[in-house]
Amino acid sequence: MSASIIDGKKIAAEIKTEIKIQIEQLKSNGVVPGLAAVLVGDNPASHQYVNMKEKACQELGIYSEKIIKPANISQAELFELIDSLNRRSDIHGILVQSPLPAHIDEGKAILRISPEKDVDGFHPINQGLMIAGKPCYLPATPAGIVELLWRSGHKPSGKHVVILGRGYLVGKPLAALLANKWEKGNATVTVCHTGTLDIPYYTKQADILIAAIGKAGYVTSDMIKPGAVVIDVGTNSIADPTHPKGRRVVGDVDFENVKEVAGAITPVPGGVGPMTIAMLLTNTLKAAGKEIVYA
Ligand code: GUN
To answer: For residues 60 and 33, is the Cβ–Cβ distance under 8 A?
Structure first.
């Protein structure tokens, strides 16, 4: 039996429709939501991600500003740029696209962003609030996965969720969100990583398996409990001579074989990716509406 496909593109489109209505309301009150995306260097994937974010902003009527800086920008110059964006009243959200060049301390760059404008949800203040289960900006990819599970009817409460990967963009925050006591969490969460001795031992016990390790086709059908929900966060570019560009993007899951064992599965592309963008837009809307109160 083949798994049902969790359509991230369709669910993200629903969210965007909801956001658009709220943006129009804000605009009728004289507020145009504004997002600044800072891109350092010429990493092609980063340029592609930022372009997709900008396009989504344009679709929804969010003012967006893409600021491209050369890879040799000094840390001090980048921090001055962040300071100037923090001061601007027409910019409600700031994102500094990761990865940054090695000479820039990414953690310090994130700290420099005002928590009120940290629509990526990476600032330690937002991360701390998230772990405490308080209102804050949730990081877009973990929030998108939580929303994808919720809206596709795969509620995590009481389930065993196994996450592959403990990175700060996905695995670590996602573990907190899904374990927290709230309607969209309340799961039993296991995090597997490079120090885990027998990863299949854990994945075979997962009611919901989330792969975020960045290894093409890593999760194979023998690692899955029959009927499990499989969420694929991977975006790996692999060589494919049959493809017009000579390459194509695949996930961390061996989709063709795993879909024969799983109960539900996200495709790549068209699964988690569109949800990440929808959640960034949600955060930008929240920032423009000053919905999160820190004081
Ligand atoms: N690089 C990969 N994903 C992200 C993201 O969600 N935000 C930022 N700023 N950089 C990224």
So the answer is: no
- Ligand 1 pocket member 235 (CB < 6 A): no
| Helices 272-288, 140-151: crossing angle, 10 deg rounding | 110
CB 106 within 8 A of CB 99: yes
Residue nearest to atom 2 of ligand 1 (CA): 98
Whether the model pTM is above 0.90: yes
Q: Mean pLDDT over residues 223-234, rounded? A: 98
Residue 295's pLDDT band (cuts 50, 70, 90): confident
Contact 147, 279 (CB under 8 A): yes
Cα 219 versus chain centre, distance: 20
Q: How far is CA 217 from CA 98, 129, 157, 212, 277, in A?
A: 24, 34, 28, 11, 24
Query: Which residues make Cβ contacts (< 8 Å) with residue 250, sequence separation at least 6?
Result: 216, 217, 234, 236, 238, 268
Distance CA 252, CA 212 (A): 7
Residue 81 CB neighbour total at 10 angstroms: 20
- Cα 98 to ligand 1 centre (Å): 5
In terms of Cα–Cα distance, which of 233, 239, 237 is closest to 252?
A: 233
As a whole number of angstroms, the distance between CA 177 and CA 138 comes to 9
- Residue range 59-118, pLDDT digits in tens: 999 999 999 999 999 999 999 999 999 999 999 999 999 999 999 999 999 999 999 999
Ligand 1: nearest atom to the Cα of 95: 9
